[in-house]
Design a protein that fits this description.
- The protein is an alpha/beta fold.
- It has a single domain, classed as Rossmann fold, CATH 3.40.50.
- The protein contains ten helices and five strands, in the order βαβααααβαβαααβα.
- The chain has a five-stranded parallel sheet, with helices on both faces.
- The longest helix has 24 residues.
- The protein is globular.
């Protein structure tokens, strides 16, 4: 059976950067956030369902999902978040399973799942979990540096995610991303070598 890794980490931890580095090493990456974006693109059936769930206020004049508004809504309203997750997560998981059947070009595959430990939807699919980790203050600074999110929403996202210590306790592997780009790259290469030997 092919080795499948679940990659996760809190907001601002650098999981997307790490996933991109693995991709540059030739690893097949299946990103649940990317799939979620594709499913909710303009004209997609899921977008109509989201409009039915939450109203027209989340759809822009050109028929696109206002992702900032949706994020602000679901991370400040637990009921809305549960409603969205119950609708969207099964659709994403279905796409992940399809993508896995087409993932043949690398010795192992990484599935990027921000809520890996929160949903438990991928535990029987993955063989190992990899957490990209950094201090919470660093998470906050990095998330805010993106510029499209405010302090209150970042803290709400962090509160909704699995607590850092619990995430670390559940991880099979951890990359501590508390340095610069080159330092992270070196750690990714090291982990890649480990996974190649396991695969």
């Amino acid at each position: 059976m092919k080795l499948i890794i679940g990659l996760t980490g809190g907001i601002g931890s650098g999981k997307s950067t790490a996933a991109h580095m693995f991709a540059q090493l030739g690893v097949d990456i299946i990103d649940t956030d990317v799939i979620g974006h594709q499913l909710t693109a303009a004209g997609e059936p899921a977008l109509t369902s989201i409009e039915n769930l939450f109203g027209k206020g989340l759809i822009t004049v050109d028929g696109k999902l206002d992702r900032v508004k949706l994020r602000d809504l679901v991370f400040n309203d637990a009921v809305a978040r549960k409603k969205l997750e119950e609708f969207l997560h099964p659709l994403i998981r279905e796409q992940v399973l399809t993508a896995l059947t087409q993932s043949n070009s690398s010795p192992y595959t990484i599935i990027v799942v921000p809520l890996l430990f929160e949903t438990n939807a991928y535990q029987h699919i993955i063989q190992r979990s990899l957490v990209i980790d950094c201090a919470e203050q660093m998470q906050l600074q990095r998330a805010l540096s993106r510029g499209n999110i405010n302090d209150i929403t970042v803290r709400a996202v962090m509160a909704a995610q699995c607590p850092r210590q619990r995430r670390l306790a559940q991880a099979d592997d951890v990359i501590v991303n508390d340095g610069g780009f080159e330092e992270l790259k070196a750690k990714v290469v090291e982990m890649h070598e480990k996974y190649l030997s396991l695969a």
